[in-house]
Every structure is written in C-alpha cells, then in structure tokens.
Specification:
This is Transcriptional regulator. The protein is mostly beta strands and 189 residues long. It has one helix at residues 115-120; strands spanning 13-19, 24-32, 37-47, 50-60, 66-73, 78-84, 87-90, 94-95, 104-107, 128-136, 143-154, 157-162, 168-172, 181-182, 186-188. The mean pLDDT is 93.
Length: 189
C-alpha cells in the first residue's frame, strides 16, 4: 500500500475543508521541494461559539516527519516550534523536553495534521499504531502531549482513536493521504 510519491506535490496542491457543526473553512496548500514538504493554510472557524482566524505553516522532511511549525491568529497570538535532533524548541521558551518523544503534531482546527502520521508510517491492512503527538489547541496555543491510535482499515481508510477512547473517527484519505471526510468535524469541498 502506498501513496503518490511526494514529488507529485512539487506542483503544489490546494484543497479546502468545510467545518461541520460550527461554521468554518480551511484553505490548504501543500508543496514539496527536493528537501522538504510544506503545508500552509488559512483557517476560519469557531470553537465553543467563539470565532477565530488562524494561519499555519508546517515544514516536514520528505517522510512527513515534522521539522517546524508556526501557528498564529489574527489577534496576534501564536506559537512557533522547531524540532532538531529529536528535541523540540519554542521560539520564546527554548527547549521543551516534555515533547521530545513527539514526531508528529496535531493542530486542533485542521484535518491536515492527520496526514502526518498516515504518510510517515508504512501500513498494512489491519495494522494499528500508537503515536505521541504534540497537540496545539486553537484556543490557548499551549502545546500538550496527546496519545493517539491509528488503524489501517483499507488502503485509503484509517481509524483515528484518542488513546483515552473519548473519540473515534474513520477517515477516508485520497492518493496523497489528505483527509476527505472527518465525520462530525470536516468535509472536503
């Protein structure tokens, strides 16, 4: 089982998701160079009835291991972190050792970050894998550690499960590993 080669992203690919439940929209552009994969997006939405506007940029190695990310809001809040030699650094606070075991990130308001562990990992149908994610909520922008489990149900279908079993969703993905539909949260336009 495999996805399209990362070189297919050199021409840039843009997709949009609509938020379900509460209003929202994301416009994402993914591109690749000979050295890295980049994702840049604008997200507007609401969480708990409070509207937000967010931009993010993620830089990954060609295997989709996260190198760095920056997230900022239209009201001036934000977070920038970089991973070097397995260690995470915040642009303001320096080394944050609590996150050193995390390779992937999960940004709360986007389905794109589900692509990271899906593309980074070799899968066989029925394979289940646990991931320790660096999670960023769009309301506080304080990073935290989040345990997640993914199971490959079909070459283009993955089950996402919060390790605490509080949430489960079956995520169909396209040939690039981008989520098509995230039940109750997002739908690709």
């Amino acid at each position: 089982m495999s996805f399209r080669p990362v070189q297919c992203l050199q021409a840039r690919r843009s997709v949009r998701w609509q938020g379900l439940g509460e209003e929202g929209l994301e416009h994402l552009t993914v591109s690749a160079t000979a050295e890295a994969v980049y994702a840049e997006a604008v997200v507007i939405g609401a969480r708990g009835g409070t509207p937000y506007g967010v931009t993010y940029r993620i830089a990954c190695d060609l295997d989709f291991s996260v190198r760095s990310f920056a997230v900022s809001t239209t009201d001036g809040r934000g977070l920038e972190m970089t991973r070097r030699d397995g260690a995470w650094y915040d642009s303001r606070r320096g080394h944050l050792p609590d996150f050193d075991g995390c390779i992937d990130i999960d940004l709360a308001g986007t389905p794109f970050t589900n692509t990271l562990p899906i593309r980074r990992t070799a899968w066989q149908m029925g394979t289940e894998r646990s991931f320790t994610m660096l999670y960023v909520s769009f309301d506080t922008f304080e990073p935290s550690v989040d345990a997640q489990i993914y199971t490959c149900l079909d070459p283009r279908l993955f089950r996402y499960k919060a390790a605490d079993r509080s949430f489960t969703a079956d995520l169909p993905v396209d040939e690039d590993g981008l989520v098509m539909d995230y039940p109750t949260l997002f739908q690709r336009l």
